[in-house]
Design a protein that fits this description.
There is one protein chain. The protein is of the alpha+beta class and 204 residues long. The chain has a single domain, classed as Nucleoside Triphosphate Pyrophosphohydrolase (Alpha-Beta Complex), CATH 3.90.79.10. Helix content is 20%, strand content 29%. The protein is built from five helices and twelve strands. The longest helix has 13 residues. It is globular, with a radius of gyration of 16 Å. It starts with 10 loop residues before the first strand and ends in a 6-residue tail after the last helix. 34% of the residues are buried.
Length: 204
Amino acid sequence: MSSTSPVVTEYVVLVDDAGHSVGTALKSIVHTTSTPLHLAFSCYVFNSHGDVLITERAHHKKTWPSVTTNTCCGHPGPGEDLSDAVVRRLEQELGIAATSVRLLLPDFRYRAVMDDGVVENELCPVYGVLYDGPAPRPDPAEVARANWIPWSEFSQFVSDGGTVSPWCREQMPLLRGLGDDPSQWPSGSSADLPEAARSVGDLD
């Protein structure tokens, strides 16, 4: 007799323009042509050699399939700390056990529209992770490809107009503004996170 894994129903945290929580929505149906503003995160994983782990999104993803992007993105669930959500998604998508999660851009926000009209609309703090562990093991349901490349090379690629996800493109000049060496970037202040992220532990 075979057993199957239980289906997990995931929710995202909806927010207003000021960053306050205004409820939740099913993750499976939130991305439409009128996607409400919601809480998310982006993560860049670096190694001690100054390389960044770049991924190609799975070919069947609803938003920006097959597009080159930063290491990992995702959504915290109701009541989940953003740093914990970063750790969870890195393990799920890439088999990476993150132990060092650092806030970089606490108040990043973007809105982007695909050719088919589907909208991404997120308050999306950006995190950095230092990782020198075993090789990533991408989950093909999420990630088609993952490669380490020098940060300077990726930064130049984006600066020269290389095709990446819209959120990655908008984040890159802000990250470059922190300095040339990611290991020396200053940490962002948690006080500058959206209110919904600062009080996420209090959400219903």
